[in-house]
């Protein structure tokens, strides 16, 4: 599997906060889905509260 860096912003109490997350995934689409799942489980965020800006290999 390759490593992908997913960048974007999410909504928190103070406004928008930027993030950069490195994920092991077979392709970029799976990397984005894993990012949504992780932020949902760890931070309690819904998909609409995340703004994915880019996926780099």
From TrEMBL:
A biological process term (GO) from this entry: translation
Family membership noted in the UniProt record: Belongs to the eukaryotic ribosomal protein eL20 family.
SUPFAM superfamilies reported in the protein's UniProt record: RplX-like
Keywords for the protein's UniProt record, in alphabetical order: Ribonucleoprotein, Ribosomal protein, RNA-binding, rRNA-binding
Domain Large ribosomal subunit protein eL20: 1-55
Pfam families referenced in this protein's UniProt entry, alphabetically: Ribosomal_L18A
NCBIfam families in alphabetical order: PRK00773.1-1
Name of protein: Large ribosomal subunit protein eL20
Superkingdom of origin: Archaea
GO cellular component entries: ribonucleoprotein complex; ribosome
Coiled-coil positions: none
Oligomer status and interactors: Part of the 50S ribosomal subunit. Binds 23S rRNA.
GO molecular function: large ribosomal subunit rRNA binding
């Amino acid at each position: 599997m390759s490593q992908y860096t997913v960048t974007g912003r999410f909504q928190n109490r103070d406004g928008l906060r930027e993030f950069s997350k490195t994920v092991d995934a077979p392709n970029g689409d799976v990397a984005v889905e894993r990012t949504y799942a992780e932020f949902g489980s760890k931070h309690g965020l819904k998909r609409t509260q995340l703004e994915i800006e880019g996926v780099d290999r």
